[in-house]
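Aim 2, interim progress: modelling of the guanosine-5'-monophosphate-bound target.
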Amino acid sequence: MANKDQTHRLGQVLVVCAPSGTGKSTLISMLREDFPTFGFSVSYTTRKPRGEEQDGREYNFVSRETFIAMRSRGEFCEWAEVHGNFYGTATAPVEKMLGEGKDVLFDIDVQGAKQLKKVFYKGNFIFLLPPSREELVRRLTGRGTDSEEAIAKRLANADGEMAQADFFDYWIINDDLDTAYEEFKAVFLAGRCKPELRPDVEEQLKNWGEDG
Ligand code: ADP
Ligand code: 5GP
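Predicted structure of the complex, ligand included:
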């Protein structure tokens, strides 16, 4: 079946959650490097930039007042308070990217993923797990970007998130990074083959065999 026109493909919703320090940013950067056309949902947050982070790239950094105003205008499809800061996903840019056939990756927390499931119920929801709690502590400390207090908060939050692992469609254990990346890529590529993303092919199938 000839399918020269790829422009009618819809974008895939790929949601990735992980307890902080598991390696989510590392794995997402690898996927974005391999697939540069990936759309990324740049969240709004009230937390301060960390390390090399740039406004508009990793996050849109906004004040609490701005965040609350956006939230009351109904601009977020999900939002949550994580580690004492607000985080939220603006609906409009996501809808635009999906409509243009761009796959969109969401790096959000478990509370946000549960809200997003109500909007994008056909999305792929992935949970990344650390190999052990000890290793999670090592990674959080080794990253060197958070204070002791922030690390303690993240660990307490991690315990709560691990207890909700059942919500997800896929579990990927980030022990060996290359293995975890292969699995992550496999879920993404399989997700791209879902029939609901191909209304154009569905049309072709309706007429299958009619033109000889
Ligand atoms: P997250 O985005 O989940 O908070 P990061 O991607 O910042 O986590 O990773 C936390 C730390 O763990 C970083 O220093 C990173 O280099 C390291 N790391 C990530 N994946 C692995 C892995 N598979 N093995 C060992 N260290 C890892
Ligand atoms: P960090 O401060 O380490 O960048 O992120 C802390 C947590 O907030 C991570 O689990 C991250 O996935 C989550 N997060 C980032 N953006 C959003 C968002 O828009 N919504 C929700 N619910 N969580 C988010």
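Strands lie at 13-17, 39-40, 43-45, 59-61, 76-82, 85-90, 104-107, 124-129, 170-173. The chain is about 40% helix and 20% strand.
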